[in-house]
Structure formats: structure tokens, C-alpha cells
Amino acid sequence: MAEEKKRTRRANGESAIYLGKDERWHARVPMGYKDDGTPYRRHLTRPTRKELVDEVRRLEKQRDEGSARQPGKPWTVAKWLEHWVENIAKPVVSENTYDGYEVAVRVHLVPGIGRHRLDRLEPEHLESLYRRMQSAGSKAGTAHQAHRTARTALGEAVRRGHAAKNAAALAKPPRMEEDESEVEPYSVDEVQSLLLEVNKRRNSARWMLALALGLRQGETLGLRWSDVDLNNEYLKLRRNRLRPKYEHGCGEAAPCGRKAGYCPNRVQVRRETKNTKSRAGRRAVPLPGPLVVMLRSHRAAQARERATAGNLWTESEYVFTKPLGGPLSPNTDYHDWKRLLGDAGVRDGRLHDARHTAGTVLMLLGVPDRVIDQIMGWEPGGAARMRARYLHVTDPMLKEAARKIERAIWGAPENLAVDKDQDNEA
């Protein structure tokens, strides 16, 4: 026992185990280095040597796997999420993705679970948050957005050794209600009603690109004339229009008292467009003949607007612009879509529903899957999943299937008529 109490010199990196004056077993486990370069050791104590050895081995395993808590004050969930979204996520994700992360962190995650220690966060904490969000009126989709953000942020914390597990990866998000995700594409009659109204409006070709070809809003608003080849009847999609973001330009000495977006001297702090992030998104799309005619007419109308505006015109090379030039705002474009639906007498729907409509029409026309994937800009690996999400079985398709079954089992319609006459005679 005397020898067991005696401390011995050990090699660097080896844990020291000894019996203290308090008659408890102690250990000093090397865990790496602090930010200032000095060695960092964790102190453990247990009543028996066996308990201590077991705990030392567990901690050494965490250290070697990189999952042990790092030196310094433990992270709170709030501190980690705020650090992650600003310093880790923001430099590497798109502006729109960052906006979604930032809102989820600021509005939902930090107020809901921010006070917990990061290394002690449990799946039940997150599941409780999701229930509270829904009780307060949030949709299941909003809770899912918070869940995805937490899963990404906590996964990075695990990779960096700030937490041993990803609580969000274990938590169960709320079930998405069917009516929240179900989309009913516009019928051919509804598309034709929209076409009649579209022809009365400025930038009419903008809406037909969405309804006929399924272009995303960002792809359409980011389109430039250099991307359009009307002679060969196709266009190239290379970039997406981003939502504008503003900061005050009025100065602290004389603040305007408004939100940054309404400041008279607001300053645009976000680039107008970004390149499409996937190879499938950078694609050539064929133009139907009527769309070529519409785009030619649109280009001539834009030239007349430029001449009328003179020095007031803002040159930008965008296909779709404001009346005095310059790129269209996605927010303005959204409200224009809502007005178009109302004026055409067509049921309300999201702008993105036009993309579902275009995909379904392509399927209805019998366009091969590979060509649909090219037009819609879907990656080969996920194309089947995207077709299942975007291509909808319509009533005419179901009726046509019923007619095919009828012909295959009961024969041609005239044979059915003969059978009915025979039954009547009998």
C-alpha cells in the first residue's frame, strides 16, 4: 500500500493515479493544451482505485477520439449557436442559407434552449422546444427549420470536441401535416387563364418562363441577355438573384428612425447574384416558339423603356428589370405574382407552385425523365426523389389510366356497346 501511495514520475501524456491524503484515489489525465499553449490536465477523484481506473480509461478514449470537452469555461448552447452562425456558418454558406440559420438561432433556439450547457443538452430539451413552438402557433415546418439548424450546429460542436453527442440528431422533430406539404399544380385551363392576363402586363415573359419551364424565381430574376440565345432558341442558367439586404446610411448623428430597408439613404450590403451552387443548376433550357416570340417582344419593349428614361435608366443587362432599369427585387416580384393570380381569377398559390405545374405538364406530355431533370435542374443522384416531390398525378392522368385498363381488360369501347345491347335483349 505504501508503494501505491507514492507518486512516481511518468512519461509525457501518461495519466497519473495516486491515493491522496483524503484517502480517495485521484488522477491527472493529460487532455492536450490550452489556448495559451500550456498543458491541460483533467483532475478526477473516486473512492476506489478500480472506479478511478475505469473513469480514466473512458476519458482517455474520449480524448483520443476527439470527443472530450475542451479546456476552458464550458459552452452554453446560446454562446455556441451565436458563435457558430456568425463565425463558422456565415463565411461558407450562401446568403439565403445564412438568413435561415440566423432567424432560427435568434428567434427560436437561443430563447428556447440557450441556457443549457452545450455538453449537457439532451434530445428531450429540443423536443420540448418544438412542442412549445407549435403551442405558440408556429407551423411544423418552422420547427423543422429550427431542428435542421440545431442538427447542423451541434454536429459541428461534436466534430470540434465541445460536446460528446449531437442531441438534435437524436431528437424527433414534429410530424409534418400532409396539408402543409401537399401542392396542387395549376391545371392547363388555369395556365391558359394566366396566359391571357400575362399578355396584358409588363415583363409578361417572366411569368411564362415559370409556368412553362419551371424556372425558379432566383434563376429568372438573375437572367441576363447574354444568357439568352433567341436565334438558337435556348437560354443558359448560371446564377441566382439574391434577396437585397440593407444597412442604414443616415448615420448615428441623425438617425432616420426607420428600419434599414426603409432608410432614405440605405446602403445595399449584399451582392445582387451568386452562381448556382450545383452543376445541375448550371444548365441549358430549350425555349418553345411562343416564348421566343414573347422574349423578342420583351427585348424591344425594354429598348423603348430605356430610350424614354434616358439618363434615369440604370443599366444592368438583366432580362427583367424595374421600369427605370436595374434588377427586380424578389419581394416586388412576389407581390406581382399575387396580383397576377387575382386579376386572372385563378386560385391563390405560392410562386413556387408554378414550378410544380411546369414539371407536371412535362410529365403529362410524356417528356423523358432525363430531359425533365435537365430542364428542372435536378442533380442525377437526387432526381428520382425530386420527381416524386414535384411531379403530380392529375385527374386527367388518372382518367386516361382508367381508359387504358378498360381497353386492356374489357376490350375496345365498341365491344362494350355490343355486350350491353346483348344484355338488354336478354
Describe this structure in a few short sentences:
The protein has 426 residues and is mainly alpha-helical.
Folded structure, characterized:
The structure is a single chain. The protein has helices spanning 2-5, 49-65, 77-89, 95-113, 123-135, 140-159, 167-170, 178-181, 188-198, 204-213, 217-221, 289-309, 330-344, 353-364, 369-376, 383-390, 395-410, 413-425, and strands spanning 16-19, 25-33, 39-46, 228-229, 234-237, 239-241, 246-247, 267-268, 273-275, 283-286. The chain contains 18 helices and ten strands. The protein has a three-stranded antiparallel β-sheet. Mean pLDDT is 82; it is low at 1-9 and 416-420. The protein is elongated and about 90 Å long. With 426 residues, the chain is mostly helical.
Largest sheet entry? 3 strands, antiparallel
| Form type | elongated
**How far apart, in Å, are the first and last alpha carbons?**
110 Å
Tell me the number of helical segments per DSSP (H or I, 4 or more residues long).
18
Which percent bin holds the helix content? Answer: 40-55%
How many β strands by DSSP?
Answer: 10
- The ordered string of helix (H) and strand (E) elements is HEEEHHHHHHHHHHEEEEEEEHHHHHHH
Strand order of the largest sheet: 1-2-3
SS-based class: mainly alpha
Instruction: Give me the oligomer status.
Output: single chain
Calculate Rg over CA atoms: 31 Å
Strand content: 5-15%
Mean pLDDT: 82
| pLDDT < 50 stretches | 1-9, 416-420
